[in-house]
Recover the amino acids of this structure.
């Protein structure tokens, strides 16, 4: 059962029953907005049918704003790393549509398990971007409260979070917040991971658990074509979304540079989950335009031509063209957004530099919820040791 | 269930753990059990016998055959507010979950600055002497105790089993809970469910003595007590400590004992090299340097893989090897 | 490219390109000999087309003999455990056809990575069954030399061996013994595992590595419907062979109680591997008629009706009927086989009881190829300790 | 490649390891490298730089992103007669492969009664101090040293790096090879490729002294030497040992040193609790009981998860903390 306006039942559309690589070859990539900014239709997925024109325009403008600000966060953070204010930064350049499309498809009660690159999803979930910087600056290991925005901490061990997501979704099932039909109650989890992560045992085990318990989780894979220096071909020899076929739930490949399509597909997948129809695999087909992280040097392993080709598929440019060509946004709107971006950039620059270094002794805090005498003694010992120096001056 | 709460019944460790789990599930509806074959079968050791029948499949969860998956999804459930109790079928099968335990379970509270603590229990039947094939007789406790963020305990008898499992489940931090599988169906003990248990993270002097302090936990407590009995016949008085908590260690009583005896023998089934005995020797020597009449001696599993079961009793520390160490420390 | 007589190219038949659950539903289980002993044809797989009548009869008699002796090994070992001569035994009752069909499809140069239940494959590979008992008696952890019969040691950690198999196959690729067209040179690996094992990360990672490197390995899964007390439904909600679709190589479900079909399918799969066409997943659909091991009590978790229904599909009975009905074997043949089985049983009983206990000090042997002084000192210390007792007497 | 074999060139640890790997691959065509990003990229630390170009994709294998898969397939290759050298990208990412290492790599020789030994090397860049995020600064050596069947070594300088990696690859047993990543591109050293190296499983006294014995390995050797330098200015003579081999331990020279100094400080980045220091303290105390003037003191990482990098230098043992321990042992 699917609610009106939430798109098709993906199981019928892309489930094992119907899907073959032949067919998907036919269906191809789900796309609703071409790189040139043309709206196109898809037999199974639509955007905006459930919206009045004004709403539609507002929604797309919202996407544009989210993507633009997300990109600015990324650009600023990259610059901050260059200036030594961050130890490292994982850039999302090129993946704005995949992340905003997914992020905007979420409801407040949905829960996100991110990788280390989900800055755009964090933005959509209302996490203060400044809080994202702490981890990369080295002042903390995750500065936000996961409970505040239902946005989990970044996970660095590749794939580990997909099992947490599945377990969290199993918890939702036990809380009776799945398939009740109440849109404000029914909940789902989204698990983010990359193309490389798809090779980890944990990720495949999460597919098995999610399928076995029919857990309300969407496996959202950003296939940005690279795992550091390794191309997607090293991880799989068939389109990645087809992995789901082996586990008995639907997989869909969507144009990850098309925010409308990503939004539509993710929304339908999340609704399946909330409705109690179980897991879906969404492969957002995109490209990592930047380096893996600021410490990486992609010129060692990939050709600039690829990057150039993907530049033409920029996720933000196509929305701008679409908005302008169809008169869905005034120039003032674009000016406001770039002004807002400048403010955000300024706030991040200043805020980052102002992030306080942790106190040495804070190293001993929160190892446990209930501290042990052993550890307290170690802290006191080190405190005394540190004082011995102050005494010395 | 009423029969379960008859005061002072004689129960095995297996039964006591089963009763403890049942009690914890009755007391807190958030408590869930996860593992392989823990449902209809009640676990290969029957520790969860009858629990799925009484609490349903949503709370006693038979999982796919994947330990990393079990622990990883348990983490997610804990983040959602549940209190998962994971059963690892045998000690040797915890390793596929090692990454999730060491990198996620142990670090979630720290990573989140205390915002998302992870109260969960991972039960591991451990130790040898049951005539099993490879991977069924391991003692991996040192590897978990070396990992900050985990609390590690080992029960040695039915009464402790009953209380400690409930305390571990109630604890706000992740607890690796070791159960001496050789003892599961061995001795019965009087269980008084109305008694007040010792706190979880405390060690206990289980036999008073004056000549040598013998430190043990889990399966070797019984060995140590037997050794003490035998030694007393030869006029030697051994003080036996059941450590109970392996991380954190609770060594106050141990230091008192060592200051009294000046001699220490540590015994565990784990390999001697970098086993708990190493840490105990280091700390005791640092704390009681001038009280020691002899170096701390360690009696443990040898530094070989666990051998074929027909010679496992040669591998495992036994009464004679403990007494031999006692002699050596006294002759030192 | 496939050589004549080795059946179809499974990729064309069952590969992702063609296979959908609908279709496989149509194709169903590959079966060539019904439970009633009737030969049936299959559109894709055949048995005996490349054999003269006499050879065919001889081959089927050989299967009967192998299965009968394999069952006897199992029955004797089970009895030996009951009499306390073995600590435990993993029974294969009901899986004789799956194991003999696979085992007989192997060439001498092929390598086997077994679980702990592959007694029938061991038999086909020429491993002395007596050597299998040592592990279960507790006198060793694998008494045979893997290099002698290209039959690896039993692996108890579920799934671990599937990665070893894949790596071994990658070694074959580097040795140039794949796809040369020389039937005596081209080699493949078979990795055995169970339905429960299919949930382990390692097994899924082995699919990923095998697909990525196109390794010459056949993943042979005996779906005996149970992982100790857990039914197959806990592990997967679609037919298990379809798991392969998610990784981009063919999967086939064969009647694992039909030795002819299992032989035909495994032979074709192995040939694909030897020819350099990469991995195949073979699901041998069968049933664990006995307990998981001699320490298990299946009455706690499954109904005897199931077992009764599967009794009617006995792998040996159907071959006996077939041989007799078609006059492919004299009564003397059956008498000889049962006499041979009795001798084997006797040899196992006597041999097992005669298996010497290891010397205590052997515990220290072979920890390393190059022993360390540390360990030598530990051995000497323990030796001295043991002597101190002899002194005492 | 000729430039690589110029005698007495000054090389970093990274370069020395690269040269050592190249030499091993030239000497034995069965040597293969496997890991993530070790091909075109040459590894995130460039240790395998240029090797895929020169030896081809069959011998320098970029693997799918799965550590258990890497080690598991390497086992299969070793069984087929190859000598795989696995690169784990960072210490914190070895755990997904922990099961394959502990249950398979470590036990294959034993299980097969020596019929199928497993010569393979698992390279692990370890330790902190590089300002990295979580999981990139771990020191997991104790967990491997606790596992019988594994040999564990740690290099501390370019010259040892060059020789030890070749010796590890040539060894007939599995070797866990720890590389102090903080040193990769730090100091250069003179490398004479025609020299004769010390045997792999031997420790080395790297500075003579008479007052206190300081035991170190990997990244802390440099710290210990700095401490010794500083101490000498205060008229204190420290003898510094680079253990080099962590399992087996080679303690002959250490015992000699302790009998001379009577005082010992052990330093490593790993957590103190159940770190190598515990085993060293236990063995030294047992072997040199009457020579010890003070208990063995341990200076290591605290028993917390590795902290955010902005305070990692507080977590890591440094010159001052080593000297503080030296003072404490002398004042004892
Ligand atoms: C278990 C583990 N192994 C290795 C690494 C090192 N590492 C960090 S990111 C990365 C590549 C991840 O690629 P992908 O999953 O495609 O995500 P992307 O970075 O492209 O977003 C690797 C190998 C890690 N973090 N965890
Ligand atoms: C990693 C691991 N976890 C758990 C076990 C305990 N165990 C032994 S056999 C088994 C069930 C295996 O089922 P399946 O893979 O279907 O093989 P079968 O026994 O049916 O042949 C389990 C859980 C194990 N041996 N290894
Ligand atoms: Mg990627
Ligand atoms: Mg099975």
């Amino acid at each position: 059962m699917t609610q009106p306006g939430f798109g098709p039942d993906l199981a019928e559309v892309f489930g094992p029953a119907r899907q073959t690589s032949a067919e998907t070859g036919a269906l191809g990539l789900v796309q609703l907005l071409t790189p040139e900014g043309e709206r196109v239709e898809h037999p199974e997925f639509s955007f905006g049918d459930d919206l009045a024109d004004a709403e539609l325009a507002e929604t797309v403008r919202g996407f544009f704003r989210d993507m633009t600000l997300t990109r600015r966060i990324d650009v600023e953070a990259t610059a901050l790393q260059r200036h030594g204010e961050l130890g490292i930064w994982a850039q999302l350049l090129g993946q704005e549509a995949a992340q905003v499309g997914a992020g905007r498809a979420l409801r407040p009660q949905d829960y996100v398990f991110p990788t280390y690159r989900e800055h755009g999803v964090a933005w959509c979930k209302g996490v203060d971007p400044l809080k994202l910087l702490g981890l990369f600056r080295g002042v903390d290991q995750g500065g936000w409260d996961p409970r505040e925005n239902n946005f989990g901490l970044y996970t660095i061990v590749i794939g580990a979070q997909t099992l947490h997501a599945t377990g969290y979704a199993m918890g939702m099932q036990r809380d009776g917040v799945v398939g009740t039909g109440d849109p404000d109650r029914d909940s789902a989890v989204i698990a983010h991971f990359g193309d490389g992560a798809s090779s980890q045992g944990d990720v495949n085990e999460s597919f098995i658990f999610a399928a076995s318990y029919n857990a309300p989780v969407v496996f959202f894979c950003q296939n940005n074509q690279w795992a550091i220096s390794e191309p997607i071909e090293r991880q799989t020899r068939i389109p990645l979304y087809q992995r789901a076929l082996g586990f008995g739930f639907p997989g869909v490949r969507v144009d990850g540079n098309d925010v409308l399509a990503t939004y539509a597909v993710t929304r339908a997948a999340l609704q399946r989950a909330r409705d109690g129809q179980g897991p879906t695999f969404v492969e957002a087909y995109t490209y990592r335009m930047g380096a893996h992280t600021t410490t990486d040097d992609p010129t060692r392993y990939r050709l600039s031509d690829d990057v150039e080709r993907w530049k033409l598929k920029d996720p933000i440019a196509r929305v701008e063209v679409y908005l302008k060509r169809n008169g869905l946004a005034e120039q003032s709107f674009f000016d406001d957004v770039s002004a807002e971006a400048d403010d955000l950039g300024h706030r991040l620059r200043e805020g980052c530099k102002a992030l306080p270094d942790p106190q040495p002794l804070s190293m001993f805090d929160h190892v446990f919820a209930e501290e042990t005498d052993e550890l307290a003694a170690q802290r006191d010992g080190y405190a005394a040791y540190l004082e011995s120096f102050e005494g010395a001056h | 269930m009423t029969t379960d709460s008859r005061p002072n019944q004689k129960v095995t460790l297996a039964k006591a753990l089963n009763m403890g789990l049942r009690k914890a599930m009755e007391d807190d509806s958030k408590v869930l059990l996860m593992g392989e074959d823990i449902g209809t079968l009640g676990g290969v050791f029957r520790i969860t016998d009858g629990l799925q029948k009484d609490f349903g499949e949503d709370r006693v969860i038979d999982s796919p055959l994947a330990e990393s998956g079990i622990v990883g999804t348990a983490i997610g459930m804990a983040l959602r507010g549940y209190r998962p109790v994971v059963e690892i079928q045998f000690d040797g099968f915890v390793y596929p979950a090692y990454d999730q335990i060491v990198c996620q379970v142990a670090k979630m509270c720290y990573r989140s600055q205390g915002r998302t603590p992870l109260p969960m229990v991972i039960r591991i039947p451990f130790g040898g002497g049951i005539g099993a094939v490879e991977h069924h007789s391991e003692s991996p406790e040192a590897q978990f105790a070396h990992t900050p963020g985990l609390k590690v305990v080992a029960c040695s008898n039915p009464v402790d089993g009953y209380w400690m499992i409930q305390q571990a489940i109630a604890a706000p931090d992740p607890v690796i809970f070791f159960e001496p599988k050789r003892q599961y169906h061995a001795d019965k003990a009087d269980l008084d469910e109305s008694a007040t248990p010792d706190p979880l993270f405390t060690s206990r002097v289980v036999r008073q003595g004056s000549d040598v302090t013998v430190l043990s936990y889990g399966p070797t407590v019984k060995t140590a007590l037997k050794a003490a009995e035998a030694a007393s016949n030869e006029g030697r008085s051994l003080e036996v400590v059941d450590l109970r908590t392996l991380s954190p260690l609770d060594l106050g009583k141990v230091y008192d004992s060592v200051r009294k005896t000046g001699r220490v023998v540590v015994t565990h089934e784990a390999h001697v090299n970098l086993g708990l005995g190493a840490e105990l020797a280091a700390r005791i020597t640092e704390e009681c340097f001038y009280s020691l009449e002899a170096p701390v001696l360690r009696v443990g599993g040898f530094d070989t893989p666990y051998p074929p079961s027909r010679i496992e009793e040669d591998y495992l520390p036994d009464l004679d090897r403990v007494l031999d160490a006692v002699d050596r420390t006294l002759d030192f």
